Amino acid sequence: MSVFFDSPISEDSIPEGEAELLLSNVGITNGITAAESNEYRQLLAAVHDVAEHVLDLPDYTAPVDTEKYPRQNVHRPTQNEQQYGNAWAHKFLIQGNPNATLLKGKTVCLKDNIAVAGVPQFFGTDAIGPWVPSSDATVVRRVLEAGAQIVGTTICENFCNSTSSYTSAQGTVHNPYAEGFSAGGSTSGGCALIGGGVVDMAIGADQGGSIRVPSSFCGCVGLKPTHGLIPYTGMSSGDAINDHAGPIARTVKEAALGLEAISGRDDFDDRTLGAPVHGSIRYSQQLQTSVSGMKIGILTEGFQPRIVDDRVKETVLNAAYEFRKLGAIVEEVSSPLHLEGPAIWTIQQRIAGTLNLMGFAHGRRGLFSTEYEAARQPWNDQSFQKLFPSTKNTIINGLSLMKSYPGLYAKTMNIAQQLRDSYEELFKTYDLLLMPTTPFVAPPNLDWKQGDSPMAALKPSMGITINTAVFDVTGHPALSLPVGFAPSSADPSVNLPVGMQLVGGLWQEQKILDAAYAWESSNDWKKVGVCDTVDQKISLKL
């Protein structure tokens, strides 16, 4: 039923033939008759009047207690204040609740797609101007209530559309273990600062590996929890299906503290409807150092692709053997459908990501950033030209897929459910699955600038998410744990961190944290030697 108002309809706002033009854009050239055209024009004018009315209504936003949590010294850091190239987006200080104990004394930084009221956001781009949120993201409020100090926002890659760390319009971020090498993305700045020991904890976002990839490259513990465990309210979205937020820290205990502080149901976010009540699970207090009897499956398909570097493979396999020493049952397991993960994620993300970037995402409840929407406005030649090739590629791919394969998204999501079910079947036997987080250590950063080759810009990121992206589609919790070093293929004299990914069943974060904590308690990953050969005590058909 259409909504009409008593006031006259401003029919002149709609040009003649507009209904026919709209239909022709989707291939319908004879859908209405000439006699019907004017009446549909009137109906268009009516709905436009309703749209204008809604735009004139005051917005509804989450309240912010700036008296209790004032924002101090918000500023764009000078080059002298920057670290690891350009890791900071904005520096400031918000003191947390002085009476809280969970995160008391901890410093926290936030990926620059997480809203902080009064702090401008870049989202890694200059294609549109920065916007200033009027509300705090739910996770911001929760870390402040837990007693942490928020010390700034950190660079994220261009619209969160890259796992490299040179795509942000605000500058390149360098690996804390080797200048000139990638910090990963898209949570590049936060992982560089955590890996370098500058900040205690970061909150990142992960749509294809954006917490776990930079954590692997920078020697951090990075957790992407079960979809919906951590509220996404107040974060710039990639797609509602893929959106995950999570903690990044230097130790498993601190990652568990971060998860405890920010997880749990949020009345604003329909993703969290299945999550436990906020504060009801004490992840850090329940950590176990024993994995005796735990069954860990080494996922064959996670090691098989040719892109997986032999030294990374060796380092992760030897780390897996350490679980045997700790009493776990460690054996090889196969899930052939895992190899379809990159294809399923690519189609799902390109279509849904394009709808999001174009402002056409729909189908869920929540509180959304009208400041971001107002800053973005419709794309034009000038704004599109400023995008990094990875973001341009998403939009071009998505538009093409929707035009050429209108039913593809439905089948893609069916197979995504099949993938989810196949992992859940494995988790009936195994507590965890294990594989490399990334197939190789951090590559060198590229000195790319507008006008250079798009293929050259994208090449360093190709294949990085072969083991991470699929778990964004299925929603399974996954953690990257640093387990040693491997030499760079670009410069063998440079040794860089290796991440081991532990994946659990849905809502099984505690099992992942326990296993990671047990491994970390018995091993100093920074003292693990660079592997030359696979430890023969673990025999796998890889």
From TrEMBL:
Pfam families: Amidase. Residues 100-513 form the Amidase domain. Gene3D superfamilies: Amidase signature (AS) domain. One of its GO terms (molecular function) is catalytic activity. This is Amidase signature enzyme. It comes from Periconia macrospinosa.
